[in-house]
Amino acid sequence: MAKKRPCLPGCVDILSVRNHFPLREKLFRAWLHRIRNPKQEESVRYLFDLHFNDECKNAGSKSIKIDSMPHNFFQ
Question: Which end of the chain offers a freer environment for a tag, N or C, measured as fewer CB atoms within 10 Å?
Answer without folding.
Answer: N
